[in-house]
Every structure is written in C-alpha cells, then in structure tokens.
Amino acid sequence: MNIKSLSILGAAVVEMDPLVDPRGVFCRWFCQQELQSLIGSRRIVNMNFSRTEKTGAIRGLHFQYPPKAEMKLIRCIRGSVFDVIVDLRKDSPTFLKWHGELLTAENMKMLVVPEGFAHGFQTLEEKSEMLYLHTEFYSKELDAGICYHDPRIGIEWPLPAVEVSVKDQAYALLDGAFEGIKV
C-alpha cells in the first residue's frame, strides 16, 4: 500500500500495489498495521455497500457530528466515480476546501476521509458499486449533510446531476454563520 497525502490536511489516497499473474490479481485492501499512520487507535466498526444505477447520479455530501464523527475508508469496487471530500473542521487551514478523486474498480484507490469531512460522489458509469469502512457507528440523530451544489464550496462535478435523493436535495446551503465542526 502506498499512502499519498492530499492537499487537504489529514486526508489521503491509498494506492494498491497488486500482484498480477496469469490467474488474475491479488492485493491487500485493508491492513491496520500498514495504515497505522492514518488510522491510529481507531477501529473499523461498520462496513457499508452501495450500488448506484445511473451515470451522473450524486450521493452526498454526508457526515456525522461529534461525538459520532467518523473516519471513512472508501473504494469503488465496480464502475467508476468522482469521489469528493469537503473539509468542515473548525479552524482548519483548509476549511471548506474540497478535493475530488477518481475512484475506479481498475485503479483500486482508497480514499481516506477524516472526521469532520463531508463526503459524496458522482457516478461516471452505470451500476457503480462502493465499499465503505467506518470507524464509528451510524447515528440517525447526528447524521447531517451539505448541499452538493453549494456555491460557497463550488464543487466542479464532471457531469450534470441526473439523480439526487430527496434527502440530499433538502440539505440547506451553508450560510455565513457556519464556522465548522469541532472534532
């Protein structure tokens, strides 16, 4: 595993170094020891899967407030997505900055999303499938999100949005009073 820090402090992309032979491909997708510098004493407590049927669909931008803020480790296991993170951490030097990363089944990259970040993605192929590892249990009471087209963030999605859930469309735009999340 090759860990590459991103320009947003604390976030990273993990690239695989697969073993390829005539039988196919083998690589380690998760290793607590190899990812120790990112994960620290956190533990994976939840694993989720999603399949998004339409190209151009957007899921997100989601996060959980403390004390249930979570780190996410995210992979695309079928198809391809434009995966986006937004730094919502109060007093962070990269507050409200976003980063987009192409995740595909072929490139096998894993995006590491720290606590205090919103996360979402847009599918670039139909029937794209995602696998998420979480360091905190889901909390309906602390579940939140920001609007995927918030002008204060200015995400440049690669495709027009063709499908967004009612819940994701209902997230309010950030106003000038939003100072971030203390994690």
What does this structure look like?
The chain has 183 residues and is mainly beta. It has a single domain (2-17, 30-170), classed as Jelly Rolls, CATH 2.60.120.10. The protein has 2 helices and 14 strands; from the N terminus they run ββββαββββββββββα. It has helices at residues 36-39, 166-170, and strands at residues 2-5, 12-15, 19-21, 24-26, 46-52, 57-64, 72-78, 80-87, 98-104, 110-113, 117-123, 128-134, 143-145, 163-164. The strands form 3 sheets. A 6-stranded antiparallel sheet has the order 1-2-10-7-12-5, with no helix packed on it. A hairpin with a 6-residue loop joins strand 1 (2-5) and strand 2 (12-15). It is globular, with a radius of gyration of 16 Å. The mean pLDDT is 95.
Name its key features:
mainly beta, 6-stranded antiparallel beta sheet
Quick structural gist:
Helices cover 5% and strands 40% of the residues. It has 183 residues and is mainly beta.
Helix-strand layout with pairing:
Layout: E1 2-5, E2 12-15, E3 19-21, E4 24-26, H1 36-39, E5 46-52, E6 57-64, E7 72-78, E8 80-87, E9 98-104, E10 110-113, E11 117-123, E12 128-134, E13 143-145, E14 163-164, H2 166-170
Parallel strand pairs: 6-14
Antiparallel strand pairs: 1-2, 2-10, 3-4, 5-12, 6-11, 6-13, 7-10, 7-12, 8-9, 8-11
